[in-house]
Amino acid sequence: MHNHQNIENLFQRFLDNKCSPAEVKTLLQYFNAGENEVLLRDLIRKQSEAINDTPLSSESLKSLVDKAYDRIKNAIAEDIEPLEAPRVPLYRRLWFRISAAAGVIFFISITAFYFQHQDKNRVSAQTQGTVEQIKDIPPGINNAVLTLDNGTTIVLDSAADGTLVQQGGIKVLKINGQIAYDKAANANSQAAPTYSTITTARGNQYQVILADGSKVWLNAASSIRFPSYFTGNERKVEITGEAYFEVAKDAAKPFRVEFNNQSGEKGEIEVLGTHFNVNAYPEEEGIKTTLLEGSVKIKRGRNVLMLAPGQQAKVTSDNITLKNDVMLSQVVAWKDGFFVFNNSDIKIIMRQVARWYDVEVEFEGKMPSEGFTGKVSRNVPLSKFMKVLELNDVNVKTEGRKIIIAP
User: What sign for the dihedral angle of Cα 261, 262, 267, 270?
Assistant: First the structure.
């Protein structure tokens, strides 16, 4: 027999990653009994309220509790039968699944809270003391540096909306936090276009609208070089890092993206009008182009590959490989303001974290082979993201702007 207080204490120990394998088994068996549904829902509710500093409406709280309860019960249902067979690999599988299920409480509540209350949270963060600011690291912001042909640089975050500069009849505009180009009707059509480069540092992202109306989102630690207007029979830009494109249709002028990274891997994308994502970070394995809409042609030396929506091409130093049925929401989650993981390796996750929060990451010991699945807002401070990892049995330690990950 277990009284409610003991179970509540055990549940809290589990959330704090302090449960032994036997205690995890006890907790699972207890909550598998239908008569204990009320207590489980109550514990989930308390945890959700504890995480969200601002009270949620009764409807929102009920929805969060229902979703978390269903996810935890589903995880229990998958493992409760094999639980009776004491095999060593089972505990690792059980611990991972149920730890991830407990993390559901955090995933749901923290995402809902920061999505609904971003502005309130920013005001609160600004009013906190110096000690609290040192302990935490805020998420990245919309900012970039615009570098003109003549070497002039403009920090876009601090620049006011309106005309930033005018060169040869071309106005560079800042409109609602993004850059756009406007070619005057009387501009000299014979003059060669000037080139600009927009660069984001770690912890920054930005959006630009090119002269033809094409839209480009730049992720952290990325850049794009492009002309003030497109001439001839093509539209060509160059990128590093990661960028998402929504290309304006123009059958007479194919749109080309040249990409390369510091590992020496290069390639080219040719499109007419389409939506696609390019990940060309030097620390990642190969350069990945993922197509969401339309069609693109990937070139690497003499190798050419056509992509259809839902496919991803990976360019390496000597080859192009194709992957089908890609999880598109995961690939473009960064553009939509989220981290999305689908059985993702911890090192891949932490590379994204390092770029967005501008931190250094170190790994100690052998990392677990299990992947992580979940969705977290990119608007949360670093401590909230680290809490998600801790709920999933990852040993996390922070030293200033350095994060140390241990198994």
Answer: positive
Strand partners, 270: 256, 297
Query: CA 337, 343, 344: angle at the middle one, nearest 5?
Result: 60
Amino acid sitting at position 15: L
CATH code: domain 141-330 is 2.60.120.1440
> Which residues, in sequence order, are CB contacts of 20 under 8 Å at separation 6+?
none
Cβ 228 vs Cβ 195: under 8 Å: yes
Q: Are strands 195-200 and 215-218 parallel, antiparallel or unpaired?
A: unpaired
The CATH class of 337-406 is: alpha beta
| Distance set, CA 404 to CA 26, 262, 354, 359, 401 (Å) | 32, 26, 12, 11, 10
Helix (H) or strand (E) holding 237: strand 235-246
* Helix, strand and coil in the chain, % to nearest 5: 35, 30, 35
Each residue's pLDDT expressed in tens, for the chain with a length of 407 residues = 456 667 777 777 766 556 676 776 677 677 776 667 777 777 777 766 665 545 556 666 676 667 666 766 665 665 444 333 333 333 333 344 444 444 444 444 444 443 344 334 433 444 343 333 346 899 999 999 999 888 889 999 888 888 888 876 778 888 887 888 877 655 555 567 889 999 999 999 999 999 899 999 999 999 999 998 888 889 999 999 999 999 999 988 999 999 875 555 667 899 878 999 999 998 888 899 999 999 999 988 788 899 999 999 998 877 889 999 899 999 999 999 999 888 888 999 999 999 999 999 999 988 877 788 888 889 999 988 888 888 777 888 888 899 999 87
CA 129 to centroid of chain Cα atoms: 29
Residue 327 DSSP symbol: -
CA distance 359 to 16: 25
**Residue whose tokens read 């030293």:** 399
Q: What is the DSSP letter of 63?
A: H
Give domain limits for the chain: 4-119, 141-330, 337-406
What amino acid is encoded at 238 in this protein? E
Question: What pTM does this model have?
Answer: 0.69
d(CA 80, CA 93): 12
Cβ(251)–Cβ(241) below 8 Å: no
Domains 141-330 and 337-406 alike in fold? no
Place of tokens 């089972």: 90
3-state secondary structure of 72: helix
